[in-house]
Amino acid sequence: MKFSSCTSFKKGGASQSREQPSTHKLGQRNRLDSVDHSQLRALLRLVRSLTGFEAWPYRESTLRRRLELRLQATACESVGEYIRFIQRNPAEAFNFKENLLIHVTRFLRDRPVFTFLERRLLPLWLDDLVAQQRRTLRVWSVGCASGQEPFSLAMVLHRPASEKGLHPIILATDVSARILARGREAVYRREDLRPIPLRLREIFFTEEKSGLFRVSPFLRRMVVFRQHDLVQDEPPGTFDLIMCRNLLIFFRPEFQDQLLQKISAALTEGGFLILGRSERIPSGNGLQLLSARFQVYQKRPKEEKIERIKNKNALVAQVGG
């Protein structure tokens, strides 16, 4: 759909805007500072009616920053003008939604977290699953973006799980259908693979004639991509491990608590949750902190399992997590 701009520019107006970016941005910030809740709610209701996406739970500071970018992109001078622009150009509502979703990701992001998972947590955890006569382990990568995190988990889990006779199933979810399509393609640039050690690249990726790198078929089969809205949808199942890093920080505190309740409900007893390093869980919610350094939590099991889990936790504590 072809967009019409909110403002008609005189000849030379665009170049003038580039010559004085700081003044323009200051003006945008001043206008946004004057936006009241009713204007913001009206905009978000319109976006929800067109896209089905509920944006209100996001922090207001995040909403205002992303709104500022869309005002600049559409040359709108006010939120009211932007609302009218969306009414004339409904596709802009999807641009607002995608702009709000911050898809910052890379392979093995925060590498020490994956090292802790591989070297300290997995040996104890996998032995426990084998003792339960389990054959699969279910993992949920929340807000997976273009797939680097779930494929990183697959690389870490593949060999140790196979050696124990376990089959990992990794559910990778995101609210954005567009970014999920990139994950499903499982094709990445050479620079995307830089964080991955060469030995793992040679095992898990194949270079194509185009110079891009495709995830190996056996690793690709471990990951299932699905669109899911953590705010509006129920959890997509129960999981032994949930990785939800650097997502909760973008939501208002009252909604963070609601989302944590959903995530906790999706954990099996004794299951593990890994958050971003700047994220914290309040006490009294059924999750026990195992590693303050890496923000690893465990769902408290039933009474008959507590002694066994305590022994496991003591071992985890010994490794300096």
Summarize the structure.
This protein is an alpha/beta fold and about 325 residues long.
Describe the protein's topology:
Blueprint: H1 13-19, H2 21-33, H3 37-51, H4 60-74, H5 79-88, H6 91-100, H7 111-131, E1 136-142, H8 148-163, E2 167-174, H9 177-185, E3 187-188, H10 198-204, E4 205-207, E5 213-215, H11 217-220, E6 223-227, E7 239-244, H12 253-265, E8 267-275, E9 287-291, E10 296-299, H13 303-318
Parallel strand pairs: 1-2, 1-7, 2-6, 7-8
Antiparallel strand pairs: 3-5, 4-5, 8-10, 9-10
Detailed description of the structure:
By secondary structure, the chain is an alpha/beta fold. The protein has 2 domains: 13-100, no CATH class; 111-318, Vaccinia Virus protein VP39 (Rossmann fold), CATH 3.40.50.150. It is built from 13 helices and 10 strands. It has helices at 13-19, 21-33, 37-51, 60-74, 79-88, 91-100, 111-131, 148-163, 177-185, 198-204, 217-220, 253-265, 303-318, and strands at residues 136-142, 167-174, 187-188, 205-207, 213-215, 223-227, 239-244, 267-275, 287-291, 296-299. The protein has a 7-stranded mixed beta sheet with strand order 6-2-1-7-8-10-9. Strands 3-5-4 form a 3-stranded antiparallel beta sheet. A hairpin with a 5-residue loop joins strand 4 and strand 5. Helix 3 (37-51) packs parallel to helix 5, helix 3 packs across helix 6 and helix 4 (60-74) packs across helix 6 (91-100). The longest helix is centred in the middle third of the chain and has 21 residues, at 111-131.
